[in-house]
Amino acid sequence: MPSATKKLKLNPLQSKTLVLLQILARDADSSAAVAESDDIRVTRLPHGHGNHMHVGQYVVSTKDASGLDNPAVWVALVRKGLVRENWQKEIIVTAAGLAFSTGLESKFVSTSDH
Q1: What are the CA-CA distances from residue 48 to residues 12, 19, 82 (Å)?
Q2: Averages of pLDDT over each 10 residues, the chain, 114 residues
Q3: Is residue 99 part of a domain?
């Protein structure tokens, strides 16, 4: 009998952080391919100004991006195989992390008007 695939569950902060990483991974100005894998290296994290930050072509509330500064969120994403362990030195989103659907892809980001 085949073993059942374990379903990953992310809390809201982990989900928001992962979707932001996915957006950054699709942005050529913020990412680069990792040789010999389907993983993507995030080369630049956005910085907030005022109550928002620019993530790729989107504007995100800084409160929705607070997971980027939360070590517990990173540890959980590593444990679930969505980012690589060396996140303090370089952020690499795994192929599994890129493919994971958080359900938030269009819920809390809006296209930038500036």
Answers
A1: 20, 17, 24
A2: 63 95 92 96 89 84 90 96 92 96 73 58
A3: yes
